[in-house]
Amino acid sequence: MVIMHMYDDRGLDIIAAKLNTLRPLFESFGDWILENQRHRIASRFKPTPDESPG
Predict the structure, then answer these.
(1) Cα dihedral sign for 19, 47, 43, 38?
(2) Number of domains in the chain
(3) What CA–CA distances, in Å, run from 1 to 10, 15, 19, 20?
(4) So what's the pLDDT on residue 10?
(5) Range of the domain at 44
(6) I want to staple 6 with a disulfide (CB 3.0 to 4.6 A). Which of 12, 22, 35, 51 is the partner?
(7) What's the rounded Cα separation, in Å, for the pair 18 and 8?
(8) Three-class SS state of 14
């Protein structure tokens, strides 16, 4: 399930119970994230040890 909350004409929040649900959106539209939020949000999408190839 994905919840989309458009808060005004400047943006919206997209919420999901599982991070992997949001990953394709982040990969496609990550450059749309506000600069002051980008580092915090991008850090959530770093691969975890169990996702690393090898």
Answers:
(1) negative
(2) 1
(3) 24, 9, 11, 11
(4) 83
(5) 2-51
(6) 12
(7) 25
(8) strand
Kindly report, residue by residue over 2-53, the tens digit of the pLDDT: 999 999 888 899 999 999 999 999 999 999 998 999 999 999 988 777 665 5
The one-letter amino acid at 12: L
Contacts of 15 (CB under 8 A, 6+ apart): 2, 3, 4, 5
Model-level pTM?
0.72
The two structure tokens encoding residue 38: 């980008």
**Among 27, 29, 46, 39, which Cα is nearest to 12's?**
29
Instruction: Name the token pair of 47.
Output: 């691969």
The radius of gyration of the chain's CA atoms, rounded to the nearest angstrom, is 13
